[in-house]
Amino acid sequence: MTTKKTWLSKLSEKKEPKIKRIEFDFADIPANSSMFIATPQIIDNYIKQIPKGKKETVQTMRKDLAIENRAEYICPVTTGIFLRVVAEANFEKYTQSNSLKGITPFWRVTKPNSTLSKKLTFGQDFIINQRQVENINE
Fold first, then answer.
1. What gap in Å lies between CA 117 and CA 11, rounded to an integer?
2. Is 21 inside any structural domain?
3. How far is 40 from 109, CA to CA, in rounded Å?
4. Which H or E run contains 80?
5. pLDDT of 70-94, one tens digit each?
6. Total count of domains within the chain
7. What's the pTM value of the predicted model, to 2 decimals?
């Protein structure tokens, strides 16, 4: 019987980022472009740099990480998956400690009404509350 991985274990998995050449149009990426595939840790580290009370869009994060990693684009699919891993893992950490100390502030990138927030196992209220505490408006 296999044991289901925790979100924290998914966040800490050792994965290597990659840059791939896309041969066909993919999502918002045109054919023959270089596409960066990040890791959950890269997404986590990016979010940690966002100051308290500030928000960032997923689109800006994608652009920043693509430039930082010398690619034209970043994969929208894996970025969404890894952002969910970051949110779920950090909420898991929060529930274990009942403290925000050491928690990556994923609510600064995740909008309460986004498709991602609707998929989160813990719902949208936590994101809404944290944004209110930091006075972050839509």
1. 18
2. yes
3. 14
4. helix 76-97
5. 999 999 999 999 999 999 999 999 9
6. 1
7. 0.93
